[in-house]
Structure prediction request, 705 residues.
Amino acid sequence: MTDTIKIDALTRDGAKEELARLADILARANLAYHTDDAPDISDAEYDAFKRRNAEIEARFPDLKRDDSPSEQVGAPVADGFSKVTHAVAMLSLSNAFDDADVSEFDARIRKYLGLTSDVSLTYTAEPKIDGLSLSLRYEDGVLVQAATRGDGAVGENVTANARTIEDIPDQLKGAPAVLEVRGEVYMSHPDFEALNDRQAAAGQKSFANPRNAAAGSLRQLDANITRARPLRFFAYAWGALSDPLADTQMGAIERLHALGFQTNPLTRLCDGPDEMISHYRVIEQERATLGYDIDGVVYKVNDLGLQSRLGFRSTTPRWAIAHKFPAELAWTRLDAIDIQVGRTGALSPVARLTPVTVGGVVVSNATLHNEDYIAGRDNKGEQIRDGKDIRVGDWVQVYRAGDVIPKVADVDLSKRPKDAQPYVMPTRCPECNSEAVREPGDAVRRCTGGLICPAQAVEKLKHFVSRAAFDIDGLGAKQVEQFHADKWIAEPADIFTLRDRYGTGLQQLKNREGWGEKSATNLFDAIDERRNIGLGRMIFALGIRHVGEAAANLLATHYGMWEAFSVAMRTAEDGNDAWEDLISIDGVGAVMAGSLATTFNQQAELASIDRLVAHLNIEEAVRPDTADSPVAGKTVVFTGTLEKMTRAEAKARAEALGAKVSGSVSAKTDLLVAGPGAGSKAKKAADLGIETIDEDGWLDLIGTA
Prediction:
């Protein structure tokens, strides 16, 4: 992609092409955000594209497009609303992304006004509400019109909807004859959660975040829908005025509050950049507890006379700037640490957080990995977070990037409650009360309850029906949880008796809420289709620790049939032939082998597997046609450096020819392929009298030299 090319490396043709690409991306993003209330890129991505566009235009000013994103505000109004032309344009703000940008903003203001650094210059600093901009026009104290920002010049007439918002007065006393009040429509966190609960109960789509919910609610064609939505409004600016509200920004905000509007109580007067940045830090720390979403702090020159002198650029005022929060970081409070038990018995601590929006997503949970991570150590015992541990009640910085599960990046020790205690990992499973042990070399504690642990049982069942395992159409994680809770299925074998037990009689699946005769029949038929299953899928579906999809297929290819695999796993013990054969498989080590052997030697687990197998036809693993292969059935080991192919290529080619590739030399090894640097394996092969050839000899042997 061209956005990987540095701007100073762009040619004129490349710059022209890049400006066209950015114009298209940003136009679509504006439409998605402002018109459709369904943003398809994050705020951080949008800001980055916009900055890149501006920087290219600065380097190639003559290439600036007529439809340049630098000249755009918002997006055109949607169909269904009448249009309103703003008497005073509703402009956007330029952005600051770090402290240096704030200082530069102050320096630009002083240079423009001819003020030296020793002259006091005050600014207001207020939270930047993440909602939908709205302009309210009052004439003789009566609300006559409400309009969205639209493209800055023309917005949507949403007067009927605005009248349903409790924070917006219908009439004002003591207001100028003409007053356009501007502010932000938003939704509080508790109201957002309650709305999504109602949406889910009604079978309707949930909103991704409060901003989308607020924008979608205000822009309803039916005002009764808006009335049912819990919208709020903060006033912070004005448009057309018949008489001034005050001489200063702060005075005007206070006047709006006196007229009956909600104004933000965190608005402060700051003398210069240091105080502005200090207040930014305060607001950033309080962000999670405000009860509504903000995405930065807005600074405005306080003196309205100076604002008038400073004026406007094409799309932004010179006298204001938005200091944005880092897109993927936020501070919030850790309210509790819960323990989740996985299918392998792992006890995983999860941070329960005061909800905060990070990167456009409401975050209320974060992973804490394990007890070492909580204590401020990594898996090698080295300090992380400067050794700061994590405690309930702490203020923590949450990090989220893309679809990555949120993590705790830092802890603010200055805000730690005095009674906060170091977290102690439980030594018993919270689900079944079995002992939870941490074995040497393991990063986590694990429940020893096995099948008697309900959490492990449910997670194993979810894994069993996952896409790479049995993949039963109509039986996903949600259905598994419900059937397990209702005691319809306790183990995988129970899935294959569902039709017999709940296809007829008083308790029929078709009579359950959310099910009907057709859906029930479809599920039973889908289950029957999976009675025939490939060996690799079967092994993976068992959910044995350390055995992933690739390893399951390796095992299937090696053993070929379920009976051979099952017998080998039941008899494998460290040092015996079955064990040596198992660990000879390239990609299977002692840890995986031990996990397999342990599973097949636990009587309860083995009995559960046998009950399952009784309902299945496990298909033989498909093996390549190796009739003419010189290495079919032979065990081959590669060692040293291969110069004409990668180790992965060599392994794949050998297996395609029917060979078994092992990672270690033993008496069962038929052939050693040794490249430069071969060491102990070559010596052992020589001691055992095993045939050894070099890479060229291998290529000659398989006919690809």
In short: The mean pLDDT is 88.
